[in-house]
Design brief:
two-stranded antiparallel sheet, Lipase_euk, single chain, AB_hydrolase_fold, Rossmann fold, hydrolase activity, acting on ester bonds, alpha/beta
């Protein structure tokens, strides 16, 4: 693993803004009544948000074994220094879900967003960014904007777990001098943790706890109509996308405009994405609609079509297994014609699994199925509010009271049992 230069964020990324800052500017005239702070935050990138609210902010870069250059954001201590000496601060690593970024854990602002809460509680907070999103759209050799080879985009969350996480975790341990970190992963952020520790079981020794916020793995009980409608076409969709030079999805305004023009029509097989995605995010009774421009400024942050296709395979074949290329490439990569299942018995990290009863993306019954396959599940915990859904883990107005305060207790519990 090649370690790149550490940048202090002040001055290091001058001029960079949020993924969709220009889009928000175009909408401003129609957003009469939206608080100016919301509009400002919608256009700031993650380091800009931290600086604005008086938190220490660092940008770190690391290169993976296969050449992807990833950006991490660090909040080394709280706004008011916190209660623990800096050198003794336990580390928490936060990992975002599909089409998201490190901004997920900050957009709700100080006293409410998880990144701020953890740093103020005395933790050294690191926020990861998976390959291909707005902050990690770089490679030593491959050009993400090439329409010819699309080699940059030929990865799924298998590579994120197998290459990105080891590079980031090893770097964090080296910089902090700690032996172990807490891992908090939302949705795909939980998926990649399972990938890492099943494929590289030696990494189990580097974690205090796994806090899975609706970690996506099994879809046996999935009842999401959009997922079920698109899963049978996973191979066709990916092949067609790459043939058209579209390996990246929802990473820029141009793609979203093209998608809306060509596929938000009733005869498109992708039409359910248009009708269900945004309503799925905003349907929570505890979603503050005033913050919608802020969410749209940072999300979606980009991903590979193969990440989506890989989940489609999990649904289609009812198995949590490695990416299915084709029989020949499977034989080359895995030594067998069919992709192997992830061996969850190798994951020994104490696992705390959290779910919302109204989560349509990750059904709570599938979380219990995962729990039975993990050898060291400490517990499966339902968020108290019955209407809590998948996106409430990030954006609900009551998420601090409903979940984050409780999460802090689980982190402390895991620390007492680990050290």
């Amino acid at each position: 693993m090649m370690l790149l230069i550490l940048f202090l964020c002040i001055g290091a990324v001058a001029g960079r803004r949020s993924p969709h800052a220009e889009y928000i500017e175009e909408l401003e005239q129609s957003l009469v009544g939206t608080p100016s702070d919301v509009l400002e935050d919608a256009k700031l990138d993650v380091p800009g948000l931290l600086i604005k609210y008086g938190y220490p902010s660092e940008i770190h870069s690391v290169e993976t074994e296969d050449g992807y250059i990833l950006e991490m954001h660090r909040i080394p201590h709280g706004r008011n220094e916190g209660s623990r000496p800096k050198q003794n601060r336990p580390v928490v690593f936060l990992m975002h879900g599909l089409l998201s970024s490190s901004a997920d854990f900050l957009v709700l602002g100080p006293s409410t967003a998880l990144g701020y809460i953890l740093s103020d509680a005395g933790y050294d907070v690191w926020l990861g960014n998976a390959r291909g999103n707005f902050y990690s759209r770089n490679h030593r050799r491959h050009n993400p904007d090439s329409l010819i080879t699309q080699r940059f985009w030929k990865f799924s969350w298998d590579e994120i777990g197998n290459y990105d996480l080891p590079a980031m975790i090893d770097y964090v341990l080296e910089v902090t001098g700690q032996q172990k970190v807490h891992y908090v992963g939302h949705s795909q952020g939980g998926t990649t943790f399972l990938v890492l520790n099943s494929l590289r079981p030696e990494y189990n020794e580097k974690f205090i706890s796994f806090q899975g916020l609706a970690p996506a793995s099994f879809f046996t009980y999935n009842e999401h109509s959009t997922f079920n409608a698109l899963a049978p076409y996973e191979n066709v969709l990916e092949s067609a996308a790459f043939a058209m030079g579209v390996g990246e999805i929802f990473g820029n305004r141009e793609f979203m405009t093209w998608f809306a023009t060509n596929h938000c029509i009733e005869d498109s097989i992708l039409f359910p994405l248009c009708t269900n995605t945004l309503p799925g995010i905003t349907s929570s009774e505890y979603f503050n609609s005033t913050l919608l421009p802020l969410i749209l400024g940072h999300t979606p942050a980009g991903a590979s079509i193969r990440q989506v296709a890989h989940y489609g395979q999990c649904i289609r074949f009812d198995a949590f297994r490695r990416y299915d290329h084709d029989p020949i490439r499977n034989l080359i990569n895995y030594g067998q014609l069919q992709p192997p299942n992830y061996d969850l018995s190798k994951i020994t990290v104490p696992a705390y699994l959290h779910y919302g009863l109204k989560d349509r993306q990750v059904d709570y019954r599938d979380l219990y199925l995962l729990a039975r396959k993990l050898p060291n599940t400490i517990g499966v915990y339902k968020v108290a509010r019955d209407s809590f859904n998948h996106f409430d883990f990030l954006w609900a107005s009551d998420v601090k009271e409903m979940f984050y305060d409780r999460l802090l207790e689980y982190l402390k519990l895991a620390e007492t049992q680990c050290f």
